[in-house]
Amino acid sequence: MAEAHQAVAFQFTVTPEGVDVRLSREALKQIYLSGVASWKKRFARIKNSILTGVYPATPSSWLVVVMATVSSMYCRIDLSMGLVYHIRRYLPSCRYLSFQHRTLLSAALFSTGVWLSGILLCRQSLKLLLSYHGWMFEPHGKMSRSTRVWLALVKVMSGRKPMLYSFQTSLPKLPVPSVEATIRRFLESVHPLLEEEKYREMEVLAQAFQQHTAPRLQKYLLLKSWWATNYVSDWWEEYVYLRGRGPIMVNSNYYAMDFLYVTPSPLQAARAGNTVHSILLYRRQLDREQIPPVMALGIVPMCSYQMERMFNTTRIPGMESDTLQHLSDSKHLAVYHRGRFYKLWLYQGGKLLKPRDLELQFQRILDDPSPPQPGEEKLAALTAGERVPWAEARARFFSQGKNKASLDAIERAAFFLALDEEAQGYERGKEGSMDHYAKSLLHGRCYDRWFDKSFTLVVYKNGKVGTNTEHSWADAPIIGHLWEFTLGTDRFQLGYSEGGHCCGEPSTAMAPPQRLQWDIPEECRKVIDSSYRVAKALADDVDFHCFQFTNFGKGLVKQFKISPDAFIQISLQLAHFWDKGNFCLTYEASMTRLFREGRTETVRSCTRESTAFVRSMMDPARGQLERLQLFQAAAEKHQHMYRLAMTGAGIDRHLFCLYVVSRYLRVESPFLAQVLAEPWRLSTSQTPQQQIKMFDMEKNQDLVSSGGGFGPVADDGYGVSYIIAGENLITFHISSKFSSPETDSRRFGRNIRQAMLDIAGLFNVPANKVAN
């Protein structure tokens, strides 16, 4: 076992002649290089902390201020108005500090104070500027003079070359809306969904809550908003995600797909090598804070907080609530293939393994003929089933010995990699290929993904890739940012040889991946089997349909002067009415990252205006012009609701936090109980596109993304994710449950397609533009 000897820096044996010590130079060299790399990373973090701490100033600007102050003193110009001399009087006099030295030190202290005051003034000014959101409510393509002045000031105050977290302290806090405004918007949102008598009952409950219960709850919420960085995010993470005791597979985790049409390499090990290396390059930039912050309009910064826990993070099960374990660094990867778990080191000599080296390591895993150990194959089913049995099993069977060491190797890994034995991906002419691909990423076989890891990278036999992401640590745009970088780096920077292998020559001296060892007793295997049965029943019930809408895309919709997102959301309302014959509470996720530590807010897409339009489409007596006017009014209303949600004036997060406060205070509220009990039978989300400009989409239309999706939120409802890719393609991911007689994902997909075509027809679009 040569690799075992390389892992030991020295060995000693006791002989009759004494102690014989043998040093391994190679091992000592690797230890030395690893230590150097670790210290470099520590110094880089200290440097980044300083640069971020003084932004928008720079350390060199401090020197400029000091030199200006000292120079003015030599020119007998007192810029400090006597403060330098006042400071000098309080400095101790000793033989080591002459009069001149004390004067220089006083000037430096004064300059430092001025410099720090300037930084605080700039930050507060920028925070005040970023609290203005009037620019979002201006008509598309038109910008008022006041907004132009505002943008110029933001640009001036933002400094140059910001790092990832440079703007964090300058972002405003999420404001707490007034109770009156939230209740008014809530009642407006449910009016089209309720019969008049039911609406009157809800109105009475809402008014009683507003007058009697809400004022006390609101005071506590305002107190939290003054004290905490964000009054929503910590409670949202804990109560919506970490306290859920049901399976997170399907119910919480979501997925992202590969390129739709292109597979850069058909070799599984090679694609895994390039993809893992690309992800690690992203992690290195993340650690160094070299990733530019995401900017709205290219100027307005968004919060980067969620990126902190992207890597080295695992959800740890608990009896009442889970926790998130996040490590500052991890140097290995956990890999699963054909029922076996491996630990793969990502560094050699303190440097990242090159793609060709990673390919060799993955090929070694693929070629390993050893069988799984007893209980090992379906071990990950524990992360797919109910949380309490997993927490109990973890405490009983994985708290010591080799089981603890192996579980630590998985939970402390940078992320998790699954090398699947099957082929997936879009195949032209093969019906259902995308449906199988989606289901494979969402739940797999229920035991070949570690659903607790921040994300699982899945690499298929034919070279296709995808991810399954745990939801509590971050929302979809965050993993989408990583995924765009990964696919772009793989395709345009790393590349492959003519044979499909990673570029370069492998280092055959590397020790092979380490097979994790388990001692799983029979009692634990029964728990694993029980979790697997729960997860399997859940996975088998998921009805998934994924399709490409190619009749037109955002290019045509923009010609209508309509937001593409509003166009799709109203199409979903029409499709749902055709599908079920009624309207339902509709959830569209929007982001609140314009605020510090902001996550999401709900846009209630089923509005009075959208229902009026849908009813007009069902009424043959309504003319085309009237329908068109109703559609435009519905689109404008949707955009207004979306902007309100983004600017902190949403409905649901405020009501959710009021409910949490009521539970802490043991205050019963029939209104809040009823509001939070209502199911979201249509849950929707748009997948973000091109957060990173890795390539020109128009020049590389074959590299469009397939997007991603999630499971149904309600047992009798639909989950719909869509990605607007390029000018002429929209991909939909639709989920529901077979067990519900009310839903059928394929039927709903047909309704969506027809709804979009019918709405486009209102604009007198020529037939050839909407034909297949």
Automatic annotation (TrEMBL):
Q: Which residues form the active site?
A: 471 (proton acceptor)
Any one GO MF term held by the record is: carnitine O-palmitoyltransferase activity
The protein's predominant localisation is: mitochondrion
Q: Known catalysed reaction(s)?
A: (R)-carnitine + hexadecanoyl-CoA = O-hexadecanoyl-(R)-carnitine + CoA
Q: Where is the Carnitine O-palmitoyltransferase N-terminal domain?
A: 1-47
- The record places domain Choline/carnitine acyltransferase at 174-754
GO cellular component labels: mitochondrial outer membrane
GO BP term, pick one: fatty acid metabolic process
Q: State the EC number(s).
A: 2.3.1.21
Asked if Hydrolase is a keyword of the record, the answer is no
Q: Could you list this entry's UniProt keywords, alphabetically sorted.
A: Acyltransferase, Fatty acid metabolism, Lipid metabolism, Membrane, Mitochondrion, Mitochondrion outer membrane, Transferase, Transmembrane, Transmembrane helix, Transport
Q: Quote the pathway field.
A: Lipid metabolism; fatty acid beta-oxidation
Record-linked InterPro entries: Carn_acyl_trans, CAT-like_dom_sf, Cho/carn_acyl_trans, Cho/carn_acyl_trans_2, CPT_N
- Tell me yes or no: is Transferase among this UniProt entry's keywords: yes
Which subcellular locations apply to this protein? Answer: Mitochondrion outer membrane
- Name one matching Pfam family: CPT_N
Q: Which PANTHER family match?
A: CARNITINE O-ACYLTRANSFERASE, CARNITINE O-PALMITOYLTRANSFERASE 1, MUSCLE ISOFORM
- Function in brief: Catalyzes the transfer of the acyl group of long-chain fatty acid-CoA conjugates onto carnitine, an essential step for the mitochondrial uptake of long-chain fatty acids and their subsequent beta-oxidation in the mitochondrion.
What is stated as this protein's family in its record?
Belongs to the carnitine/choline acetyltransferase family.
Would you tell me the protein name for this molecule?
Carnitine O-palmitoyltransferase 1, muscle isoform
**Lineage of this protein's species?**
Eukaryota, Metazoa, Chordata, Craniata, Vertebrata
